Amino acid sequence: MSYAVTMGLMKESELLAWLCKNAVKTATVPVPIGDDMAGVSLPKQMSRDGLTLLKIDQCLDQVHFNLSQHTPSQIGRKAINRCLSDCAAMAARPTAILISVALPMHVTLPWTKRLYQGCRLAAREAACSIVGGDTALWDQRLVITVAAVGVPWRHAILRSGAKAGDALCVSGQLGGSILGRHLSFSPRIQLARRLTEIVRIHAMMDISDGLAIDLPRLLSMSGAGAEVDAARIPVHPDARRLSRRDGQNPLHHALCDGEDYELLFTLSQRDAAKLAGTGLPVSIIGKITRQRNAIILFNDRRSQPWPAGGWDHGPSGRPMPQSRSICAETRD
Amino acid sequence: MSYAVTMGLMKESELLAWLCKNAVKTATVPVPIGDDMAGVSLPKQMSRDGLTLLKIDQCLDQVHFNLSQHTPSQIGRKAINRCLSDCAAMAARPTAILISVALPMHVTLPWTKRLYQGCRLAAREAACSIVGGDTALWDQRLVITVAAVGVPWRHAILRSGAKAGDALCVSGQLGGSILGRHLSFSPRIQLARRLTEIVRIHAMMDISDGLAIDLPRLLSMSGAGAEVDAARIPVHPDARRLSRRDGQNPLHHALCDGEDYELLFTLSQRDAAKLAGTGLPVSIIGKITRQRNAIILFNDRRSQPWPAGGWDHGPSGRPMPQSRSICAETRD
């Protein structure tokens, strides 16, 4: 059935009853939780390209969250929103979510309910239904796997559409998400929708591993390069806060921390200019170039190769100390 | 992207390159692995009810398989086929699969490739594409989570459609799957398709937890009961083999072992008669009744309440010994 529960100590029937309680037939979910699969009616007329978009994403205890530090509601929220951020990145409306949970033996039924409530709240914020799932109990750490189905608001926006001369933009501010935003962020679904209404986005993705790693991915798919103006990268106050603690440059945090779940996108310079007066939380940070490499420009007109995957040497040319961080320090 | 890999010791780039190697644009998968989500073009014209069917299912080491005993190819195959069996149960054509894998640190790249090859082979047998996934490395046991998207061949067949007077049928033979069939089974996708072409199925599900547990689920959703003829339950030779080993009654194995992945369905008596000459691997095991309970009839005309969830007392009325099995022994 679309909600299977295999459990040991926890009262299986009680959790299952609770999970199924809200499973009612609706126009968009004619076959809710309780059958072998969930049946949804996708809003086909909306998408011009006829595409159905699919994503699966797992959240692992001590990799993506920490069960001993974070609340079940925070964990559930993050698991859903990580997946929905990919819907935002494709300019898609999330329409259905499936959740698979492998619960460690020691969690209680109330804790598990709060985990699902976190999931439900995040789904509701995105006007999206949780249509099915699978729950099991085991003697290992918590795993939450989320699959999302989306339908493009207009048409799907891929990573591969960036054109030489395009403006390169990011939403929001980057860095320091470890201070809490990696749990509390809201995926940029409505911003992506709004953007597709007023401009023509050429290429887009979400920043989950950090701009340093993610920009080259977009460029590689587009067969293009970029010049990024270091001074224009929107550095989050959390990056500065973290910087005061660890002595690491704030720009380093903005480039390398990851888990920003902001949008990285390109569009024509003319369209980019249109965004100026809209009040949308968007910054132009550079431009797309024909050369297939990326560089970062500093205020003093020095340029450096893009720190994709980490620099072996700092901008000064000195070897960097061993670091667990994905890229070495940069200077702004 | 639709294939993210977060890894430690294993060469991330090498696995990712291998995973993406076969990711080519096709008419049905216009946006393959490599973007934030996969984009598929679902065969909408085929389904009369306009439904898109969704399922997620997890396979856990030492719960659903044993990494130290089973080959990676067997494990991958089972993970996919468990999920595709639900497509069969809805009389749906599986169209797209997503796979999320949390790999334990100790597995090697060649082992991981064989795991994915097992997945691919199973998907190919069902003429279905693996369109995306997520892979991570962690210090816990292997988790494979599979999400499937299906489109009904004609219309989705639910659990809730059984009518009083219907014939109750199962495909194949039941019991003893632990001897190997729980890994090697093929989901009954083509049988379900064929059935929808020649008869009108009223209700259907797959038998994953065993007929003892699964029949009451179908009856509960249909608001009906059933009379099952014990002598007509098709007992697999594996159940008899297991019986010779453990002294348990073969019928007990057929009812309670689970992991048969056969179809349980109901249809009118007239349609059931049509199946007789077809050569399809289907047995009529009883009929649907108006009373909301199920009973099992034995050759000597004794009847017993259905052993759903296990009997507290054996047919003789004597208390059963403590057993880890989901239902106590039955007599045929």
Number of continuous helical runs of chain A: 9
Please tally the β strands of chain A and state the result: 13
Query: Which architecture of the largest domain in chain A per CATH?
Result: 2-Layer Sandwich
Count interface residues per chain for the largest interface.
A-B, 63 and 63 residues
Structure description:
- The structure is a homodimer of 332-residue chains.
- By secondary structure, chain A is α+β, with helices and mostly antiparallel strands.
- Chain A has 2 domains: 3-152, PurM-like, N-terminal domain (60s Ribosomal Protein L30, Chain: A, 2-Layer Sandwich), CATH 3.30.1330.10; 159-305, Phosphoribosyl-aminoimidazole Synthetase, Chain A, domain 2 (Alpha-Beta Complex), CATH 3.90.650.10.
- Chain A is built from 9 helices and 13 strands.
- In chain A, strands 8-10-7-11-9-12-13 form a 7-stranded mixed beta sheet, with helices on both faces.
- In chain A, helix 2 (72-89) packs parallel to helix 3 (109-125).
- At the A-B interface, strand 2, strand 3, helix 2, strand 4 and strand 5 of A face strand 2, strand 3, helix 2, strand 4 and strand 5 of B.
- Strand 2 of chain A pairs antiparallel with strand 3 (52-60) of chain B.
